[in-house]
Amino acid sequence: MSRLCILTPAPDYWENWSLPKAHYARLLGPDIAFRSWTEPGDLAEFDLVLPLLAWGYQRDVPGWFALLDRLEAEGLPLANPARVLRWNSDKAYLAELSAAGVATVPTLIRESMSDAALASAREILESPRLVVKPPISGGADGTYLIGPSDPLPAEAVGQRMLVQPFLPAISEDGEYSLFYFGSAYSHAISKHPAEGDFRVQEQFGGVERGIDAPADARALAEAALAATNRLLGCGPLAYARIDMVRDGEGAFRLMELELIEPSLFLQFAKDEGALFADAVRAEIHPNR
Q: What mean pLDDT is predicted for residues 206-217?
């Protein structure tokens, strides 16, 4: 029987991961191992390592990249591949996807954020409200919604930051997430922030709903995956979550391409996650 390991949050990273853990154990077998990504130990015994619950890596970026370097150097089987995980860790990839023709939320990266850089971004993006967050981020850590007269938060001053226009559709229509396993479409959800907030994560009161993905949402998701393959030569990926939102004209724009540790919301999949399990098993090479 193949042995699988899923990397989990650091011991001091609090977020409830019991539901996805239960899904993975149900789909991949009771012998699956769960090890903290910060102290995974010897992984050579496993036929496949998946960082599906490596939440909080943005709080120890050197440690995260050191782990990827180690896994790559040891030739350990990893899904998705280490080069994909490394590229996807920094949201500067949005600029690459935009240059490749993918419709993305307009994004600026400022190497040292300041009030002057904020004012310049307002002019360039022609948006009175801006979202400012670290390029290496997750779970809305360090993410701010800044109004037209709001100052730059002290925590962001001097930091490398990503700046995007706030798109009101996030509150009105929600954020859409589409899920692909082994390049095959599985399911979709919309995520909605709590009243008065802009963050869609559950820990901030966000809620999810299962939906049928609109055709133009699927077209954008598949364009993003195809562009990623052209850029990285990675082929079909075991799993991918594509987050998007409508712009002022109603067209979908890519917010994030989640290839590392996305919540997969398998409770909304019509097949209860069977396609995901098949994609994971397809990554296992018995003659390794």
A: 90
Is the CB of residue 266 less than 8 Å from the CB of residue 23?
A: yes
Q: How far apart are the first and last CA of the chain?
A: 14
DSSP 8-state symbol, 251: -
Pair 99, 113 in one domain:
no
Let me know if residue 87 belongs to a domain.
Answer: no
pTM higher than 0.90, yes or no? yes
Tell me the two tokens of residue 214. Answer: 């609109």
State yes or no: pLDDT of 287 exceeds 90: no
User: In total, how many domains does the chain have?
Assistant: 3
**Does 116 lie in the same domain as 145?**
yes
User: Which is it for the CA torsion 241, 247, 253, 255, positive or negative?
Assistant: negative
Q: What is the pLDDT of residue 118?
A: 93
Q: Does residue 61 sit in the same domain as residue 115?
A: no
Calculate the alpha carbon distances from 215 to 4, 199, 212, 220, 273 in Å.
35, 25, 9, 9, 22
Answer yes or no: do 218 and 187 share one domain: yes
Is 43 a residue whose pLDDT tops 70?
yes
Residue 288 lies in a domain: no
Q: Which amino acid is at 264?
A: L
Q: Same domain, yes or no, for 13 and 65?
A: yes
Please tell me whether residues 188 and 253 are part of one structural domain.
Answer: yes
- CATH code of the domain containing 131: 3.30.1490
Residue 181, beta-bridge partner list: 184
Alpha carbons within 13 angstroms on the beta-carbon side of residue 85 total 26
Lowest mean pLDDT among 146-150, 186-190, 232-236: 146-150
In this predicted model, what pLDDT tens digit does every residue of 14-23 receive, in sequence order? 888 999 999 9
Helices H / strands E in the chain, number of each:
8, 12
Angle at which helix 274-282 crosses helix 18-28, to 10 degrees, equals: 70
- How buried is residue 286: exposed, middle or buried, by Cβ count under 10 Å (0-12/13-18/19+)? exposed
